[in-house]
């Protein structure tokens, strides 16, 4: 498709007029305050109305300096008074999207966004988009343009979807729109298909309504198609990266768990021929899919069991173990264990996947692995849950206690209190995750007794000079608060604990940021004159 053409005579007349008016139009656009040409404002407007920008785009006027005027023409002439030049603006956008010039196409894509931001009557915008066939042209820029044009056109389509009636252009009620995303993807290159997946992810985040439209249009199957074909690792990884972005949205689980995507992630994790980074990303996507409380209300439990077995198998591989895969697996278990339902499943499932988290939390087999394990252990123990949901059912609680005591018994530390103390004596990042674990575990009386039996733990968590970062100070204070709350609601009221309780109450009252350091006031110094 090309920009609007002109008859030879019309083009000759326009070239003569352009040569005469270009200098004055240049002043009018760039410095109107200083403009004092022979041609008034109305004359310049008359020229632009006689030869509108869509026609100017159809000829090569680079030598006259016209192309550099286009952004300013758009800003000054059209956008300043949108309601009076709406149709001209749309015609200009249409011509710009059809132009061969990269700069002009970029300008037209940006103009779409500007127009959608400024237009007040969304019904008029929708009608005009349809009349000027702009949506297919934007889609063409998305799939065929360079990286920058593609990104801008994607933002334009997303902005269109945010208009109440705009989504009807992308997903017509009768399902018979001029652009069928499924058909476009089937006829596109590998790179263009990934761009369409990115568009689906962006539209998915707009609202539950657009997410429903995507699900009803079966567009989520595009992800399945790209990920199933694992012959091209970069293509598969790109599709997984877009899917990873999509599962971040709060309402994604409602729709994604109705598809075969979770089972597909299990297949990827079990695929020994797949690249480790592909398996790592699939593991994290699985964790995110199961990180919400309502996930377990709709998902097939057999599929979840298969996932836990796949992660268990991955974590059992000791020889030549990939660090990224291990950390991703532990992080995924932490995501699943964020909710009560997920934590109970991890602790009671026959795979005993939670055992890997507890053992790795106290085993010094790599700093990254220990950090990931401690963070996951904190999530499973309930630090991220509401106070009344921290503790789990009896079977899960018994398993949790057994895992901790078994790990301690098989270590040189022998007791859970000694294990927790060893974590708090490591570097600041490890220590912060240790605070998380204690904040969650201390709701259990057996853990509270372990902590109270180790005065060194209390001394560390109540020491205001212990942490130097804001995150560390807040984590330490939250830990103090959790221990204090657990003590106040427990049956432990022995006189020997009075000093410990006093320390905790003082630390809680002091807050996270105040320390006991005394401020050194400046002192005057008297220097004998002989020194000079």
TrEMBL record:
InterPro entries: ARM-like, ARM-type_fold, PSMD5
Superkingdom per UniProt: Eukaryota
GO terms, biological process: proteasome assembly
GO cellular component terms, semicolon-separated: cytosol
Protein name from the UniProt record: ARM repeat superfamily protein
Organism this protein belongs to: Oryza barthii
């Amino acid at each position: 498709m090309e920009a609007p053409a002109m008859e030879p005579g019309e083009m000759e007349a326009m070239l003569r007029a352009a040569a005469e008016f270009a200098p004055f139009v240049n002043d009018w656009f760039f410095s109107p305050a200083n403009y004092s040409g022979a041609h008034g404002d109305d004359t310049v407007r008359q020229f632009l109305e006689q030869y509108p920008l869509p026609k100017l785009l159809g000829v090569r006027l680079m030598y006259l300096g016209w192309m550099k005027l286009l952004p300013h023409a758009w800003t000054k002439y059209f956008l300043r008074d949108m309601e009076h030049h709406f149709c001209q603006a749309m015609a200009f956008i249409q011509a710009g999207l059809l132009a061969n010039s990269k700069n002009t196409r970029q300008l037209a894509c940006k103009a779409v966004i500007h127009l959608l931001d400024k237009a007040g009557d969304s019904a008029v915008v929708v009608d005009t988009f349809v009349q000027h066939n702009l949506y297919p042209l934007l889609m063409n820029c998305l799939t065929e343009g360079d990286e920058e044009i593609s990104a801008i056109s994607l933002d334009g389509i997303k902005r269109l979807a945010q208009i109440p009636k705009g989504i009807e252009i992308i997903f017509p009620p009768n399902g018979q729109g001029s652009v069928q995303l499924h058909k476009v993807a089937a006829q596109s290159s590998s790179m263009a298909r990934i761009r369409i997946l990115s568009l689906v992810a962006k539209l998915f985040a707009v609202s539950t309504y657009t997410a429903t439209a995507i699900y009803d249009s079966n567009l989520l199957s595009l992800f399945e198609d790209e990920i199933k074909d694992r012959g091209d690792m970069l293509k598969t990884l790109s599709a997984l990266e877009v899917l990873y972005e999509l599962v971040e949205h709060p309402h994604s689980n409602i729709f994604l768990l109705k598809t075969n995507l979770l089972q597909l992630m299990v297949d990827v994790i079990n695929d020994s021929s797949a690249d480790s980074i592909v398996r790592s990303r699939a593991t994290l996507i699985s964790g995110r899919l199961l990180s919400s409380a309502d996930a377990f209300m709709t998902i097939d439990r057999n599929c979840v069991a298969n996932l836990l077995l796949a992660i268990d198998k991955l974590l059992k591989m000791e020889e030549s173990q990939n660090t990224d895969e291990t950390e991703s697996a532990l992080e995924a278990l932490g995501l699943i264990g964020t909710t009560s339902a997920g934590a109970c499943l991890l602790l009671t499932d026959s795979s005993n996947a939670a055992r890997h988290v507890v053992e790795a939390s106290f085993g010094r087999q790599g700093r990254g692995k220990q950090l990931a394990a401690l963070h996951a252990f904190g999530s499973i123990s309930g630090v991220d849950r509401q106070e009344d949901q921290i503790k789990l059912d009896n079977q899960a609680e018994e398993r949790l206690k057994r895992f901790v005591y078994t790990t301690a018994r098989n270590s040189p530390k022998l007791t859970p209190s000694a294990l927790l103390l060893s974590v708090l004596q490591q570097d600041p990042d490890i220590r912060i995750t240790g605070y998380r674990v204690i904040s969650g575990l201390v709701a259990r009386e057996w853990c509270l007794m372990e902590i109270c039996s180790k005065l060194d733990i209390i001394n560390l968590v109540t020491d205001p000079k212990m942490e130097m970062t804001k995150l560390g100070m807040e984590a330490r204070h939250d830990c103090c608060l959790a221990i204090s709350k657990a003590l106040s609601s427990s049956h432990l009221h022995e006189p020997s604990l009075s000093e410990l309780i006093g320390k905790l109450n003082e630390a809680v009252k002091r807050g996270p940021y105040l320390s006991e350091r005394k401020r050194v006031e400046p002192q005057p110094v008297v220097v004998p004159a002989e020194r000079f």
